[in-house]
């Protein structure tokens, strides 16, 4: 597979360091506000990358962090801790705020059919690992301490700036004035590894003991410490939004490579933004929509996923309601087409002619070619439609479509007709409880209620199975 690598600034052939698994670290959310559809684009892109690797036969070990401490309102050490600010606004504790928005985030992933990472981990559960890493950096002479914080000295790391391609001198020139909060910070690009509970942070709620006094970690150190703990000192792929390139990821490289002397990440993958009216959709600009806002207008989160599939991950996408409604309509049509293919009249399977077999193979290899060239998913979607319109018999089309959907993740094999309504599931669960208690009268009444709605329930050694009753046939 070929993948654009921000580090080399070219499309490179992707190879893993060890044969298996692919080690993947994806920067997760800062849980102080609602997950919006701009974030969703990032997490769907992560998912498309991971599904593509799975499709190609790679096992993937995927770690994602939840930032619940240390991310300041400016990525460059200025401003307040986002969590503390969110808690003040909501009149809740930081822990409550973090839990509430973590749950909201996880629901957003679930409804867009994002495969959960193998490890989803909170920064606040890894403070000791971060302190250990800071200690190594201190031993190696990369840190200095002021009254306010422990800093990483970027002038001591010769490769600083290699990800963004900026020279250290330019970065220093370009640094904003408001970054100079701590008068004893040596270089504008130096970043805090540990903030002390003094001055502007003297009332910080989340704090831990450390050799530098009570305090809390900086944002960047969490990703390095957690990535190394679970995936090793050098990993295959690390992802994030393009906003992470100049500070967060540059700083992750500096502190990780300074500590280990080894390359931290082999492939850096960055996604472009979702815009709205030409501006980045963001929490701070309050110009965002959540999945719930879309659902209120009848747009399925999976239709949003379909919309995102149509723009390459390295291109900006401007969100409009027209494009969202259009994606919803196309997604509905696609599902309807699949239902028609499942119709008994069109789904009887026969031997494929050599020409049709050949055509099927051509679609499969064109699809593979598209995804192999830096995840050209818009092209893959176009190939899917071409395949669906071809004269390949329906059952074979469906097989290939469901194979493509291993990457698209649009739940195409689940049609409306296959879904068991929630109320039937509730009746079935109540019936199971009645059976367990030996109340067979109640269980029979519940079975009759289920049958009356057009479903059948079958008892299995463990649990039950529900299916739609076949339509009544006419007597001769
Ligand atoms: P945050 O919680 O603000 O740290 O953002 C989490 C992730 O979502 C980061 O990787 C951001 O780059 C990404 N992100 C935030 N806003 C957008 C947007 N409008 N479009 C795409 N990705 C975004
Ligand atoms: Zn990160």
UniProtKB/TrEMBL annotation:
Cofactor needs: Zn(2+)
Gene that encodes it: cysS
Cofactor binding mode and count: Binds 1 zinc ion per subunit.
Record GO biological process: cysteinyl-tRNA aminoacylation
Catalytic activity field: tRNA(Cys) + L-cysteine + ATP = L-cysteinyl-tRNA(Cys) + AMP + diphosphate
Sequence similarity: Belongs to the class-I aminoacyl-tRNA synthetase family.
Protein name as annotated: Cysteine--tRNA ligase
Keywords: Aminoacyl-tRNA synthetase, ATP-binding, Cytoplasm, Ligase, Metal-binding, Nucleotide-binding, Protein biosynthesis, Zinc
EC number in record: 6.1.1.16
Compartments (UniProt record): Cytoplasm
Cellular component, GO, one term: cytosol
Residues at which ATP binds: 283
